[in-house]
Design a protein that fits this description.
Blueprint lengths: L19 H28 L4 H11 L16 H14 L1 H21 L2 H12 L5 E4 L15 E5 L2 E12 L6 E8 L2 E8 L5 E2 L14 E11 L12 H35 L1 E2 L2 E2 L4 H29 L5 H26 L10 H11 L6 H13 L6
Parallel strand pairs: 1-4
Antiparallel strand pairs: 2-3, 3-7, 4-5, 6-7, 8-9
Helix pairs in contact: 1-3, 3-4, 3-6, 4-5, 4-6, 6-7, 6-8, 6-9, 7-8, 8-9, 8-10
């Protein structure tokens, strides 16, 4: 006996938790992704190249760059709407969601939160429109999970600042018009705005990646980069600055990773329904249904968690350890879903004709950037025990 299939997210009636405006924004981004991105993403991934500037302009026209910020050309949406946009973009590819997250929640947010009015007026309207691209320079070759050990250094020279150091794994780096660079100064860690083309500043692209291939990744090299006094972000000092930006960006991942998982599960459901094995559809076998049921349950639970955390954030009650719960759980489950879906597709699952292994490869990066699973586990452990186990 057969019946009409239910979409995985309808099992727990997730849509009933959303407002009409949130559903409309989700639909707009989903339509844009289907029309403008999906037809090209497999080729971008295979070639390891994307038309970043064209995409930034189109995403700016769509209104998703810095969409959760107020003013300066930003849409000023709520947090859940922003999360749903990330969900739809990552359902296409994690690299495309990374472009939006880094632009809006790292580079733009740093300027919006910690910058002067002059800095905001100089950069934010163009970045919201996608006419200017930003990147965020925190991670270093020897300072990933421990940003306090960064070696990039800023010293005063008269009224100027002089920066030296190297940043690594920087999304948007080689196409950015401005880099938000964090450096150690005599009075603590400071943030600086480094325009592209500044003498001594270069951003060589990182190639031969096996993950996030539809994304621009670069190294930032600063060799006696001289900046004027007004290049510093004045309203923050210490690690609270970059960590505050990371907390903002991690929220998008909580929704985004589940977009990749949803796309994999939708693909597996469609494939299993059409694939015939021993004169029956693959979907009709108990082992296949167990896989599909387990994945749908985890996807639904993850979306309930994401929406709940979004509501907490909009009410000003979200804590860093709750962000860690969301990032740890949803990325971990997303990559497990992608891998399991690959088994349903069999050998077809390893090709770019289907998205599942591309998503799984991308999620390997999402699993470790903006806080590894191990780090988020320790953040949660500290909240539970009161004991810091980082060192």
């Amino acid at each position: 006996m057969t019946s009409s299939p239910v979409h995985p997210l309808d099992l727990l009636a997730v849509d009933g938790l959303l407002t009409d405006e949130e559903r409309e924004i989700r639909s707009t981004v989903r339509t844009f992704g289907a029309r403008e991105l999906r037809p090209h993403v497999a080729d971008w991934f295979e070639e390891g190249e994307i038309p970043a500037r064209e995409l930034a302009r189109r995403l700016g026209e769509l209104g998703v760059l810095g969409m959760h910020l107020e003013g300066y050309g930003c849409a000023g949406t709520n947090t859940v709407a922003y999360g749903l946009a990330c969900h739809e973009l990552e359902a296409v590819d994690s690299g495309l969601r990374s472009l939006v997250s880094v632009q809006g929640s790292l580079a733009m947010y740093a300027i919006w939160k910690y910058g002067t009015e002059e800095q905001k007026q100089q950069w934010l309207p163009g970045m919201a429109a996608g006419e200017k691209i930003g990147c965020f320079g925190l991670t270093e070759p020897d300072a990933g999970s421990d940003p306090a050990s960064m070696r990039t250094h800023a010293r005063r020279d008269g009224a100027d600042w002089v920066l030296n150091g190297t940043k690594m794994w920087i999304t948007n780096g080689s196409v950015a018009d401005v880099a938000v660079v964090w450096a150690r100064a005599d009075d603590g860690i400071r943030g600086f705005l480094v325009p592209a083309g500044t003498p001594g500043f270069s951003a060589p692209a990182i190639k031969k990646k096996l993950s996030l291939r539809a994304s621009v990744t670069a190294e930032l090299v600063l060799e006696d980069v001289r900046l004027p006094a007004d290049a510093v972000l004045p309203h923050v000092r210490g690690l609270s600055g970059p960590l505050g930006c990371l907390t903002e960006a991690r929220f998008g991942i909580i929704f985004g990773a589940l977009g990749a998982a949803r796309d994999c599960l939708e693909t597996a459901l469609s494939y299993a329904a059409e694939r015939t094995v021993f004169d029956r559809s693959l979907a009709s076998y108990q082992l296949t249904q167990q896989k599909l049921a387990d994945m749908a349950v985890e996807l639904g639970k993850g979306m309930l968690l994401a929406v709940h955390l979004g509501r907490l954030k909009d009410s000003g009650k979200l804590t860093p350890e709750q962000i860690s719960v969301g990032k740890l759980n949803n990325v971990r489950e997303a990559i497990a879903i992608a891998r399991e879906c690959r088994t349903i597709l069999g050998a077809n699952g390893i090709t770019l004709e289907y998205p599942v292994l591309r998503h799984a490869n991308n999620l390997e990066s999402v699993l470790t950037y903006e806080g590894t699973s191990e780090v988020h586990t320790l953040v949660i452990g500290k909240a539970l025990t009161g004991e810091a186990a980082f060192r």
